[in-house]
Amino acid sequence: MEALHIKRLSFGLLGLLTYIYFAIAISSGNTIQFDEKISVGLGRILANSQDLLLGVFSAVGATEGFVIIAMVVILWLGLRKKDFLALGVLIFALLSGYLLNTVLKNWHGRPRPASDHLVEVSSLSFPSGNAMIGLILYSLTAYFILKGLKSKQKRLLTFAVTIGIIFIYGLSRVALNVHYPSDIAAGYGIGVAWVMIWIHIYELFSRKAKKI
């Protein structure tokens, strides 16, 4: 258990450092080459896949998609699992994550990419809210699912699917010209740190509840 806590702490710190690195980099203009290389390369690979990207984005990466998936998970935790602690953690993690992202966006004040956006956006760019909130939602959902799985194959499959979804919608945000790659990387970073904090809170209260 101690080793697991150390691993989670390490992941959380790595995520936080990733965000800090890109936050410093954008303030000094050092992400231009990084952003251009990834954006151009991704644009070439997905040049004829805009319709597919829009479909993927709508399914797993848009705000509406997040809300639908979050509601399904909330119902699952509350009605099926009856894990009200997990339910509270998920809701507060998402709401506090959204507020944190809003504060960080206003603080950095980075505008969206100047190229034509393939979906409608209105807020600032850094760090990506979709990357951050999506990672929180899908990672915590996977964590709660994994708690009930004993099969190694099913656990690996759940982990792989979660990583795949997070990675795909992150790429779609860049390909749709609504984010720089550094926005996505920073959103992932701060999202990982936030997830580790809320997993720690969940397990802390779970242990206390068992002692009562």
From TrEMBL:
Q: Which UniProt keywords apply?
A: Membrane, Transmembrane, Transmembrane helix
Q: Which domain of life is it from?
A: Bacteria
Task: Look up keyword Nucleotidyltransferase and say if it applies.
Answer: no
- Do the record's keywords include ATP-binding? no
The record ties this protein, via Gene3D superfamilies, to: Phosphatidic acid phosphatase type 2/haloperoxidase
Regions that span the bilayer: 12-32, 52-77, 84-104, 124-144, 156-172, 184-205
Question: Where is each Phosphatidic acid phosphatase type 2/haloperoxidase domain found?
Answer: 87-199
Which protein, by its recorded name, is this?
Undecaprenyl-diphosphatase
Q: What organism, scientifically named, is this protein from? A: Mesobacillus persicus
